[in-house]
Amino acid sequence: MSHPRPIETIRADFPALTRQHAGRPVAYFDGPGGTQVPDVVARRVADVMLHHNANAHWNYPTSRETDAILDHARATFASFFNGDPSEIAFGANFTSLAFHLARGLGRAWQAGDEVIVTELDHHGNVAPWQALADERGIVLRWWPMDVATGTLALDRLPDLLTPRTRLLAVGGASNALGTITDITAACATARAHGVLTFVDAVHLAPHQLMDAAAIGADVIGCSPYKFYGPHLGVLWGRRDLLASVDVPRLQPATNEPPERIHVGTPSFEAIAGAATAVEWLATVGGGGGTLRERLAGSYDVLAQREAVLFARLWDGLGGIPGVTRHGPPPGTPRTATVSVTVGDRPAAAVAGALADRAACFASHGDFYAMTTAERLGVRAQGLLRIGLAVYSTAEEVDRVLEALAAEVA
Ligand SMILES: Cc1ncc(COP(=O)(O)O)c(C=O)c1O
Predict the structure, then answer these.
(1) Do 310 and 362 fall within a single domain?
(2) Which pLDDT value is given to residue 239?
């Protein structure tokens, strides 16, 4: 029997929630750009830096402790992804890891080989493949998004696959619109054609528990700073791919996967803090069992809470004249992230007004989902993005709705 942690005790873990702005407690709607951090995570980062600071692989206590930090974090993220510790690699952020692996993979490809990218993706999963197009003559094929629904139609994928297709780069969820793409089906289609799959789960992982075994991708990457951890990138990759991809390496560095994927000395403190963030996330559901089981319970609770709050947000936005909601409605596969435009007002101005009027912190722009914003015709104006996180409340949702309504009145 699990007892989900009440929202008040969850919120009490986040010192940032005590911050005031314009005389009110800050409501953070900027989670899709980076979430707030529980104190236990920040304390872990400080603990590593203050008491266990060393480089890895040497024969004295602090260095052995650093090795243990890496081992523990790999095991933790193996549970998180439902993979094996030997399949977990760390990097500065998702984008760096994507550029790194793309460069390595591209070395085995010929001019005229093809990579499929999507119009719904953050350019962190476009630019690395675009670089191969510029540098090696790789041909990019674009999986178009349906502008009316903000989705990728699966039945468009088979037409894009040719005998020259080497890889499909696809996002699990749109960080601009919240749309969840059926990556399991997309990966199955690609795999049936012998095509590698590179999944950007940066926006999906905070909302849905990753399952590498079920998804069937070759690489899945995410960024723990989007789910209550420090700034870091983490990927799960098929072991034989991580063992063989021709990434740029220092000759004296280990050639053993997964460490051969690392470039230089990693941020051990961020890696330790990210593992603590996963462990913290596992407390949300209040259940027992293995880390993976506790995480599954937490994600269930998150999904239930987010669905209720998100419906309130979506419906409320729909009732404000002049506000246009972009992306799919509740009840369809989506995260609790919505972007809106407010008449023809620049999103930056609306974001500033929400902060000053009601201490609601929401992001604006294209969020590097540049092609999505272009296709929606809102790149110049920008989108205002409202994202819900584990600490979001109905009061905060009502507050941002009231502030928006007052702003357009
Ligand atoms: C969907 C998505 N992909 C990729 C990225 C880039 O991640 P990182 O900042 O870790 O490079 C982001 C960041 O916002 C994102 O939301």
Answers:
(1) yes
(2) 97
Report the nearest-CA residue for atom 15 of ligand 1.
202
Mean pLDDT of 52-70: 98
Is the minimum distance from the CB of 165 to ligand 1 under 6 angstroms?
A: no
CATH number at residue 344: 3.90.1150.10
**Residue 2, domain member (yes or no):** no
- Checking if the pLDDT of 380 tops 80, the result is yes
Length of the chain, in residues = 409
User: 93: domain CATH number?
Assistant: 3.40.640.10
Residue 2 has pLDDT above 90, yes or no: no
Q: Which token pair is 78?
A: 């193996």
Domain extent at residue 88: 43-281
Closest C-alpha residue for ligand 1 atom 4: 124
CA atoms within 13 A on the CB side of 144: 8
Q: Could you give the number of structural domains in the chain?
A: 2
> How confident is residue 409, by pLDDT bands cut at 50, 70 and 90?
confident
Q: Residue 223 C-alpha to ligand 1 middle, in angstroms?
A: 7
Same domain as 404, residue 303: yes
Question: What is the spatial distance between Cα 152 and Cα 162, in angstroms, rounded to a whole number?
Answer: 19
Rounded to 5 degrees, φ, ψ at 210 are -70, 145
Report the pLDDT value the prediction gives residue 293, as an integer from 0 to 100: 98
Residue 317, pLDDT score: 98
CA distance 117 to 78: 27
